[in-house]
Structure formats: C-alpha cells, structure tokens
Design goal:
By secondary structure, this protein is of the alpha+beta class. It is built from 24 helices and 17 strands. It is 46% helix and 21% strand. A hairpin with a 2-residue loop joins β5 and β6.
C-alpha cells in the first residue's frame, strides 16, 4: 500500500510578480521572497497514494490585479512523471471563478494525492507554473518542493494473524480408580465376602494392572471410612476410626507390588452427606420428607431422633440406605503417560489409527512437518470423527498456503459460522485481497486476539499509525515495529523486533538507527540485512530512510 501527498503553489507568487513586470527573469528573481512549505517535508506513502499539502505565502505586491496563474505539482521519478491537479489563481480584476489573490498578498493551501508507483522511491516534487498578464503568457521556471517518498509505512505485511485450534491432546491423563468394602452394623471387622466382592475385586484387578503398566504412575491414594448416621455422633466417630484401621490392613494386602506412597487415611464419622445423597437417589416413597428434615436441622442427634420417629420410614432406611453408608472407600489417582508425538507418528505410519482418538489424530497432523501429511490427517479427523477442529485447521492450513478459495470452501463446512476463529480467518482472506473494510467487519465480529492485531493491519493500510501501534501491541513483529516507527516511537519499535534475527528485522533496525542519527550503527545493521538477504540491497539503495548513509 503506498500513499503520496502533494501540494503545489511555490511558483505562484513568482509568476504574479514577474507578470506585473512583464518579465520572466524578474519573476524568477522574486521567487526567493515567496514562502513555500510542504507537509510532510518528505513525502510518505499511505494507502498506495502519496498525499501532499503545500502552503504558499505571497508578499504584498506580488499578484497584479489582471494576472492569472496556473500551477501544476508534478512528481518526477525514475521512469516517468505523475502530475497532480492544476490549480488556478487570479488577481482581483480578473472575472473568472478561480481562487483570488489580493495585491496585499496572502496564503494558499492546496492538498491532493498521486497514486504511488515503485519508481517514486527515488523522486522529487516540483511545481510547474504558467502565468498570464493581459495578453502575455509566461512559463515560469519549475520549483522543487520536496525530495523522495518514504515507503516505510507501506511496507507492512497483509499475511494476517491466525492460529490453528488446539488439538486437545493430553500427553498425560489422570484417572481415578475406586473400590469399597462394607461392614456390619456397629462393626469394623473385615468380611471375606466383601474382600472378594465385586467392588473390591475389580479394584484389586486394576491395581494388579497398574503394577504391570510402565506408563502408569500412582499419584495419590486415599482411604476414607464412614459410619452410618445412627447410634450417636461419639460412637460413630470411634467406629469410623476403627474401620479406617481395618481398611489400612486391607490396603496392605493388595499393594505389595505397587510403587505408591503410604495412603492418606481419613475418618469421616457419621456420613450425613452420603446419607442425603443416597436418600435423594432412592425409591423411598417419603424421601422428600426425610430431605426436608435434613434441611431443617443441623444437629446430628436431632436429625437422627426426628428420622427415627418416622418408624415406617426408618425401617426402609435401615434396609435400603444405611447399609451402604457403613463403608471404607479406596480412592487411587493414577497418571497415565500417553503416546508421545514420535509414537503417534509411528502409529500413523503403521496405519494403526484405530488405536487413537480424535485429539490424537489432530496431534499427528499438528506435529507433521510435511504439509501434505498435515492435510491428510486433518482430513482424516474431519471425516472419521466429523471433527470441527479438523475442518477449521484444514482451512487455515490452506490459508497459510495462500489457497484462499479452498480456505473459504472448508470454512463454509463449519457448523458454527459465528466461531471467532472462523470469522477471523474469513477476514484474513479479505485482508489479502485488499478488501480492508470488509476484512475489518469480520475482525470486529471475531473480537479475539488475532482479530485485534489484524485490525492493526487495517489501521496501517489507512495510515492511522497511532491506532495501528495500539492494536499491534505485543505482536512482536515487523508490523508492530513499522507502526511505531511511523509514530516516532523508536524504542518501542526496537523492542518489537527483539529476538528477531531475520534480514527484514535488521533492515528496520537500520531504519530506526538512521532516524535516530546513528549513522554507523545504521550502516552496520544494513550490511547485516543485505548479507542475510542480498535482495534488500536494491531496496536500500532507493530507500530515502538511508539518504544520510
């Protein structure tokens, strides 16, 4: 994107004074008394144009009442010229519709822009004027107004910011195993039927498998013992402690071959929480009445008394609920080491994808270096698991390859078109096509981190460098550096390039050094950039940023 600013009126005053005397030479001699200023002092590309504003101050007596002046600003560059609009001025006695300049003098301000072309990197702006006085016409000497065009603000990348979605693969998985043993009422004796029962037997089998599994590691073991809420709080606390001791012996009998620390033993006592949960899940006809009592009273003795008073209900509780609360729980937290990235790749090579799930297939794609292999496994995830992540990642893979139509095709297949990542990716496609306003609409709707940075690129395209620097903050790339260079925030621009040892980064470090007046440092950095990328030498030779070098 490039932008040029041109304003021309320098030869204006010249012309009039000369016309008054009817002498081109006198006009030229008087030109030094005409004040001319150009903004910017060095032309700058913005949005593929070079905008310019020129102010010309005419002293009194320079413009005769019957004189006219036509001024044309022209950018002269390698390989051609680009003319701006011609501005017409007239004295007070001329009966035309041009801007009038009094014999008392005055100022004229003109703004316009010229489309940027590559040759303008080496150029100058001049004003060409033709003065008329009565029936006499004089072509005035051209007057140079500005040198060169700064293209730094237009060197930003429109590749855009986007990310692949997280594959969700976990390199380690934590699972919990649990077994229970139950006790008779008011007893802490271990029963053979419980030790060989389904719950504890399955738990023992899982422990045996852990002992043989190199990928499994026991992280934590808890033994938690309870008493049913009957018989008094003090009695049940003691009973719960005794059951904890018994449970420790049961654990010792099944953990001989395990690499596990000593278990954490807990004694809960009366299990009112478990009681409430069991009642809520039960088929007891009046369970709502029991739950109401529990909510009304906090005192354990009052609760037990009130429930016992409901004799028929208590009979059902003794049969269905209370036996399940006289228990010890064995809770084991186990960390399983999942397949490594290298192992997943080997499984894929051996066509053993049936051994893995959706996140694993996505992980294979993410860690593949070959783009064709990435595409193969993203497609596999989409087709085998109807994976929305796979479809999106397939779309941005194509986006990274510059296949915009194919990107849109895959994005169209996403079930959630309002997904911020999808909206952002669509915006990047429009950004690359130069449809900045349409891209901005997508980015504003997406409103995620990538979209906010992409709005910074839109701001760069419009020459709004303050907004661009704000939105690109933290990007840590050349775009952020360029925005800050154009805001004259040179230290911030250098920080954005920190850790970047690319040729382009060195080039813009050289720009920063040159703007700071550090000529030797700029030369050193520019040499480094050109050594890394010889193509930058030609760019540097035409870059007005390095005119001091």
């Amino acid at each position: 994107m490039k932008t040029n600013k041109i304003l021309a009126v320098a030869a204006l005053a010249l012309a009039l004074v000369a016309c008054n005397k009817n002498s081109a030479q006198q006009m030229a001699d008087a030109s030094s008394n005409v004040g001319v200023s150009c903004v910017p002092e060095v032309l700058t590309v913005i949005c593929d144009n070079v905008p310019v504003t020129i102010t010309v101050d005419y002293p009194a007596g320079y413009f005769a009442p019957e004189s006219k002046l036509a001024v044309t600003p022209v950018i002269v560059y390698e390989g051609g010229e680009a003319a701006g609009p011609t501005f017409h001025y007239q004295g007070s006695a001329v009966r035309e519709n041009n801007k009038e300049i009094s014999t008392d003098g005055g100022s004229v301000v003109e703004s316009f822009s010229v489309p940027f072309v590559e040759g303008m990197k080496k150029c100058y702006l001049e004003l060409r004027s033709v003065a008329s006085y009565k029936d006499k016409t004089i072509t005035l000497p051209s007057r140079k107004v500005a040198d060169g065009v700064i293209v730094t603000g237009n060197d930003f990348s429109v590749d855009g910011y986007f990310t692949f979605k997280e594959d969700g693969y976990q390199h380690s998985v934590v699972k919990t195993s649990e077994g229970q043993i139950h006790y008779d009422v008011n007893s802490s004796a271990l029963k053979g039927s419980e030790l060989s029962g389904t719950s504890f037997k399955n738990y023992k089998d899982e422990l045996a498998e852990l002992a043989e599994n190199d990928r499994a590691k026991i992280k934590d073991v808890k033994i938690i013992s309870y008493a049913s809420p009957e018989g008094g709080e003090e009695h049940n606390a003691k009973l719960s402690n005794e059951r904890s001791s018994a449970a420790k012996k049961a654990w010792a009998s099944v953990s001989k071959n395990l690499d596990a620390a000593a278990p954490e033993v807990q004694s809960v006592g009366q299990d009112w929480e478990g009681f409430q949960e069991a009642v809520a899940k039960s088929n007891i006809e009046d369970k709502d009445l029991i739950l109401r009592v529990l909510s009304m009273y906090n005192d354990p003795e009052v609760r037990e008394s009130e429930i016992r008073n409901m004799s028929q209900i208590f009979t059902e509780l003794k049969k269905e609920v209370l036996p399940e609360l006289r228990r010890s729980r064995f809770v084991t937290e186990v960390e399983y080491e999942n397949y490594s990235d290298a192992e997943l790749q080997r499984l894929a090579d051996r066509k053993l994808l049936y051994l893995v799930d959706e996140p694993a297939v996505l992980r294979i794609a993410a860690t593949s270096e070959d783009p064709e292999r990435k595409e193969l496994f993203y497609r596999a995830a989409a087709e085998r698991f109807n994976s929305q992540v796979g479809r999106y990642d397939l779309a941005v893979l194509k986006l990274s390859q510059g296949s915009h139509a194919v990107t849109e095709l895959y994005l169209d297949q996403m079930s959630n078109q309002d997904d911020p990542d999808v909206l952002n990716a669509r915006g990047v496609v429009e950004l690359r096509r130069g449809n900045f306003d349409k891209a901005a609409d997508y980015f504003e709707k997406a409103d995620n981190d990538c979209a906010r940075k992409n709005l910074g690129i839109v701001a760069l395209s419009k020459g709004d460098y303050v907004a661009a620097a704000d939105k690109l903050k933290g990007a840590g790339d050349v775009n952020e550096a360029i925005a800050n260079i154009m805001c004259a925030e040179y230290d911030t621009a250098e920080k954005a390039l920190s850790g970047n040892d690319s040729a382009v980064a060195d080039y813009y470090r050289a720009v920063i050094a040159a703007r700071k007046g550090k000529v030797q440092e700029a030369k050193k950095l520019l040499d480094s950039a050109c050594e890394k990328d010889p193509a930058l030498r030609e760019k540097a030779l035409k870059d007005i940023e390095f005119v001091a070098l």
